[in-house]
Amino acid sequence: MATGTLRIEAKTANSLPIQDVDVVIRNEQGELLQRLKTDENGKTSVVSLETPEASHTLDPDDEGPFSSQCYVSLIHAGYISVEYRGVHVYDGIESVVSANMRPLPRDHDPSATITVESLPPVVSGRGPWERPRQQRGPQDLRVLTEVVVPEFIMVHLGRPDVSARNVHISFVDYIKNVASSEIYATWPQASLEANIYAQITFALNRVYTEWYRSRGYPFDITNSTAFDQAFVNDREIYDNISRIVDGIFNRYARRLGFKNPYFTEYCDGRTVTCPGMSQWGTVTLAERGMNALEILRNYYPKDLEIVETDNITGIPSSYPGTPLQEGSEGPNVEVLQRYLNRIRTDFPLIPQISYPRGNFDAQTAQAVRVFQGIFDLTPDGVVGPRTWYKISFLYVAVTKLSELTGEGERIGIGSVPPTTVLQQGSRGAGVNEVQFILNMISEFFPSIPPVIQDSLFGATTRAAVIDFQRMMGLTPDGIVGPNTWRSFYNVYWGISDNVFLRPPEEEPPAGRPVYPGTLLRVGSRGDSVHLMQRYLNAIAERYHGLPTITADGAFGNATQNAVIAFQRRYGLSVDGVIGHETWNRIVSVYFDGESVPPAPPYPGYYISVGSQGGYVRLIQERLNALNRVHPAIARVPVDGVFGSRTRSAVVAFQRQFALSQDGIVGRTTWIRLMAESAGLTV
Q1: Rounded CA separation 529/562 (Å)
Q2: Do 91 and 46 lie in a common domain?
Q3: Which of 145, 189, 551, 641 places its Cα 20 to 30 Å from the Cα of 412?
Q4: Virtual torsion, Cα 587, 588, 594, 598, nearest 10 deg
Q5: What is residue 79's DSSP assignment?
Q6: What is the per-residue pLDDT across 395-414, written as a single tens digit (0 to 9) for each?
Q7: What is the CATH number of the domain that holds 382?
């Protein structure tokens, strides 16, 4: 037996990492292999697994086995659990399970699990596409004016004429999925590149000719191998394939003198032959020493060329053409620095660039290296095409998320869903709210496409509403009635509970230490830990109820307990970790003295039985603090789940302070609870 490796990533649909996800890996017999947790980048450590030798995948007549398989489960409070069945691991290849975890709506069964069935590559049985598929003339299609690499592509999970779900996915991730679904990652490099060039070009041909859109379909391509390319939604991908795609996703094949992407027809070449490329044949040609372009020219016209386009929708700045590295200067460097500083807000391990003025200094190089390490790029501190476009895509992702948050604060959807029934043809403020909510949800649920926020309920908005209704198990009629409104609000506020968006950083007052950009937690060591320990001890000497600790620069359990006590006292998220917010509050209290923490604002919606998340946890902590002076208010578990015990404690609180005893935390109960528990410790 040989060895392959497996790594797990957990993130939101908008690529924000999810930390502390419990990951369980079992073999095909259900035996436990590993238990892991994701780190601050949303990743686990790499796991080695036995697997058959790669030689089996190089022979089209070999019947295997070709890989080992395992089951992977991801569990995190506040998110819907995910189970991957049949994850394939190959000799010498790193398999990557990249799970888009969805926030758990409050009315959702917390034990529910999304199941993903993985499949081996379909190359062994790849057949020719059904007709019509080859373009026959200008009357058959509509073409764009320029070749564009789309930021996202809509994939129909079935034959074009059969009702099925549509998946909204980034073009880069689509190609990685197709390559992982159609070819063996163990094939020679030139063979992999030739196949991926053909897959990119085929997809761009569909987009360029608007092959399906011009026929009235609401998607760009299907996953039916009878018509298009294989695509298995949410499947694992392979690290070497991912790296190739990152480097060539904006390159495609065309004939000399032509603008359009060539129609790169291909088939498996083993059970079926066709006029285009043989997938198995590329292995033989690569073993003879041919490069990717030579392999393509062996099957397609001899004047075929590979060209690159910087016309990438959604990317604000194109690659400057030459690598940026230490010593480089100019506006492109300034753009790079600005992007990295913004991305750092959501990925705090990236060090801040203090003077982003267009000089690529040692600080910028270190920020680049940390970014490259997080996203599995070569950590050389040099910004070539792969690093540039990865930074660009991440910048677009995090800024879009912030724009949506800002828009949400302006709209302020409130706590009670509207009762107005909206459908195609409706217009006005209610439609604008629907479109805003859809756009917010689309950032976290890939199956929901974004819509134009124009207050007009057109066909695109109706299609997005139908996708949402299908996802939530509602009647998919495209009409926003009471049930759909209620689901909109539950999912929207579930996202707000489970995703913390950091505000832009402000410069601290002179002489005060700046947050180092790295989370301090159990196991951390160094000057920053020592500084926080000294500050916490000084605060504990002034104010009763906070423990003192040994200031030794090592973050152990005692330090964690002191941090938790501080966070409880000052109304912070109680996790025992010193992040940006906790750091700044410790520094502020140390320098300025104790101040009564402001009452957290009412979240804008009712919190009751079935609710989950950070707000429920805060309510539970405040109720327990009140138990010290009002024993009639029973203590409750601080688990972030609003169950019957929490409801009983809320009723007791409402009775104690002569409020309506409904067991629901609305605006009046929230404000009184925060006021009465201010300054009390658990």
Answers
A1: 12
A2: yes
A3: 641
A4: -130
A5: B
A6: 877 766 544 433 333 344 65
A7: 1.10.101.10
